[in-house]
Amino acid sequence: MNNIPTVILAEGAFEDDGLCKTAYGLLRYAPESIIAVIDSKNSGRDSSEVSGLGHGIPVVADLDAALKLNPKRLVIGVAPAGGGLPAEWRKYLVLALEKGLEVVSGLHLILGEDKEFTAAAARGGGRIVDLRKEPADLQVASCRAQQVSAMVVLTVGTDCNAGKMTTSLEIVREANERGITAKFCGTGQTGIAIAGWGIAVDHVLSDFTAGAAERLVLEAAADKTARLIVVEGQGALTQPVYSGVTLSLMHGSLPDALILCHRATRRFTEIVNLPLPPLKEHIIQYEEAMRLVKPVKVKAVSLITRGMEESTARRVIDESSRETGLPVIDPVRFGAGVLLDALLDDSLKKQPLYSGTKY
Amino acid sequence: MNNIPTVILAEGAFEDDGLCKTAYGLLRYAPESIIAVIDSKNSGRDSSEVSGLGHGIPVVADLDAALKLNPKRLVIGVAPAGGGLPAEWRKYLVLALEKGLEVVSGLHLILGEDKEFTAAAARGGGRIVDLRKEPADLQVASCRAQQVSAMVVLTVGTDCNAGKMTTSLEIVREANERGITAKFCGTGQTGIAIAGWGIAVDHVLSDFTAGAAERLVLEAAADKTARLIVVEGQGALTQPVYSGVTLSLMHGSLPDALILCHRATRRFTEIVNLPLPPLKEHIIQYEEAMRLVKPVKVKAVSLITRGMEESTARRVIDESSRETGLPVIDPVRFGAGVLLDALLDDSLKKQPLYSGTKY
What we know:
The structure is a homodimer of 359-residue chains. Chain A has helices at 21-29, 47-51, 63-67, 87-98, 115-124, 164-177, 189-195, 209-221, 243-253, 279-291, 310-324, 331-334, 337-344; strands spanning 6-9, 34-38, 59-60, 73-76, 102-105, 127-130, 151-157, 182-185, 228-231, 257-263, 298-304, 328-329. Chain A is α/β, with parallel strands linked by helices and 359 residues long. In chain A, strand 1 (6-9), helix 1 (21-29) and strand 2 (34-38) form a beta-alpha-beta unit. The termini of chain A are far apart.
């Protein structure tokens, strides 16, 4: 987020890490830019008391209080219940734009197409950034992602909300700390808010979804020092609601390796409640879906163990490693070193496209 | 197409069955409603002399000549080169709308959002039907397609343009001829033009693509006499440009059986030129992609043998049947009876969703 002084709008919901996914993502991965969180319910507390993140960042009661800290940007950090825009938020956003702030939104509602917001921005010099707004010039994919020289990694999951964004960010952080230039390609609103760029691939016409993934890889590779490009995955092949988006990302970004992400406590898929198959079944499925386009492997498993005792976490990590025969770690709890090592095993090697079936 | 007297616009391209896919589809599957084809290059000939289809249907020079036959509908039957709308066509469409015709378009350009066309329609009482325009109230999928009592069949392919629409229509025709009420769900512009309803799933936000497939199945099942619902597939799992759309159709429509469609002469995938794997590899891949959501089988192969001598066609059909262990036929050349028989083998049985992995 480029260190622009930022306030996060988390009104009425800052305790809820699900509703406030974007707020928590920013506090975890871009805390240096955050100067306040707005939530009247928790006003006066420290961010870390409420969320466990952002030590030293104050929670304030409203936008007026936040404006005293001289922010340049307001990020909507909470998904409003029901998907609509509450009336009192509308006033906040109008005020922020009138005060010249950049307002960053991941809502399905495109603020830049709303006359009240565009008028406020025109009056005050504010700027609207709609994270979900698709670029106008998207194209269908055409295997161009194969041309980049950096190794491309895609995080895939056993379900939605399985740690794909977090795992991607942790791998990028670990690589950069080791001096390996790594780029993160955000594909969902939170990932895009954290990285400051990306495409919300679930908000793209289905014909262009793979093309959007391809474009992200090519844009990341424009930095010629990049040796590793990590694409944030979405959905899961076993999540029927979003599986098409998942496969579009796989065949558009043409990864050289996959990292499988899983929440250790999950037993049924979200939304449709199908039983969640064992990890090795997911691995078979992901590798099969790549085999006839670009045969690549799942190189490691990222196991999110949040909510487990540390000893339990270590035990399920060991069990999962035995089951899959792969390196397994919880990158949030224990760092992403094990995952990066598994990728470096190949010396960041590019993999070829499918070249036919041998008999 | 409900037997509304229809002229097809195929100006300058009626010999080209690729460019005029919609024209050929209508002439093959809904000829009773077609009263003329417009193409100045072939004016004065019989449709069947140019296309091999539509015996007795005249090709006329322009819209004025067509209007003398008193049409109620004009269908754009040719994809304009470059994707844009040629200036002379614009005049045609305006005139048709001014004369009170229904104008049916599968162009990416949405005619109903163009002021010149909406004004012409308002003046003359014409109606614009944009086949590619998505319904406003699409939702994400949620496995509701599993609730229909009819057997659902999805055609899948080894590539784009592999005979999925044709195969679907031939199966539906064969079933209806045998007294089994069957419904066709169109998912592309030509299929929708033929059926008179459907959703162009490649023109839907990727989040809603599976939901669009689900909706089509539920709409088809609203006819309680329907025992068989055939969903027109799109793309292919091995066609990286469109594979996400393919998987969305699979997991949204939740078929009880798959029919694999293949062009016998194809050796490389369209657009990206990857080598085309053997049929049995495609079957493995399709069944694997269904296994952890709803484990179903490919029941037969539709092999399009156009361009082959009949003896060669019979030989490749036999070879493909030996390779796959499945019934194989070219439904255009030899009828869809073999395919329908393979489906009836199961007595139109519903298949259950994935219920966990056994060890």
